[in-house]
Design goal:
Length: 492
Amino acid sequence: MKKLSLIAAGVLSVLLSGCGQDTRSQSETSVDQTSKIVEAASNVEMDVGYNVPVEYFTLDNGLKVVLSKDDTAPVVTVAVYYNIGFRNEPKDRTGFAHLFEHMMFQGSENLGKMEFIKLVNDNGGVLNGSTRFDFTNYFEIIPAHKLETFLWAEADRMKGLAITQENLTNQQGVVKNEVKVNVLNRPYGGFPWLDMPQYAFNNWYNAHNFYGDLADLDAANLEDVDAFFNMYYAPNNAVLAVVGDIDVAQAKQLVEKYFAAIPSTELAPQPDLTELRQEKEKVFNKFDKLAPKPAYAFAYKMPPRNTPEYYAMGIIDQILVQGEDSLLYQELVKNQQITGSVNGGINYLLGNMFNYNGPMLWMSSFTHDDTVSRDTITAAIDKVVNKLQETPLSEEEMERAIVKIRSSLFDAVDGFYGFGRADLLASFALFDNDPSKINELEANFKKVTPEIIAKTVKEYLRPTNRTILTVTPGEDPNTKSETTTDAAEQGE
């Protein structure tokens, strides 16, 4: 296979920028355009690739630190990743990892309530925090000359939080309201990102309600919060990534100055996340009284991380669901006009194929008219998947997929003023103890052959490894009938 140029990858990033969005208004000739770009790229012999500089070390207290210099702009991203996420939170405390994400902004020893946010805003920066499957992260993108200020600030809240009943009660209310707004009172709320794992997985850790049961959120007390912080928000359970316009030697000194004295802790044993091989297709339906149209989602359990099949699934994802040239888009949108768009991916709607550590799903979802049956949609999907299994990919198809993968990697590395790079570096440090893996990704994808693709499709895209979840608009008739019966009995 011929080498692909950085220039071609940059051009293709325009095509990839719409992945996961409504594609009905895009050009009808995207397949031809992509083919032309692939052909042009294949004829360019430019040995250009990315090589992310990585300085990696661990402090005596166990804090993993990744420094990566990028002087293209005078900004720095500071990101702290804690090895606690949705799925490894304690039982009977569903949603606690997410609740604690909010608690981290309620003040620390030297910064009062919400002062961390004010400090970022006053310095012209941006910040965010999020809870994902296997980590909770916090990051700031700030002017480069303010690096020391925010290393101090992150260290200050790693050392200790302002854990008060007032803060806890306030944030319980905020999270409960977030659940109501984003899930309970929203069309397709939680579909499919929150719903599908609960149907597809069997292990409680992978399959519980990540957003949290309202009763569990109410039951949290100060002792729970304090114990959670001491157990999971310790330096030996975290990664600090600093990316941007830095002097690496100076940044290392600052990290040691502010973080080295924070004591480590005895960590809780990690839960067993094992999922048994699925041997039977699962099919479920949920009713949604707010949904205007029916919806369909399907998910297949992923191969283990870092295996040849794992990288093959990254290519399969590009071939099947990413962009207008994808096979499922062509079949479901263009040929059969079942839907107006097809969205999906690995770690769909909660990250990417690199920033998780445990069982994962490759998933896709879309809405459709109520005149189309579930069986019709499933048959159309099987038609595409079976063809991929039975007919080896041509060299042109493999080249197209590699070009798209390469473009998406460049987008990830350069994304959002350095945060994309920080996210990959922190994830590989947290889960693999090897942030330099960021420079091996392209080579690992290029090792995938059509034979590995066929093998992966046969084992992982079999119907017996699939979960289908549909949404039917309206009230659940069973719930409605019970309500009617109760009312009738009360009337008597």
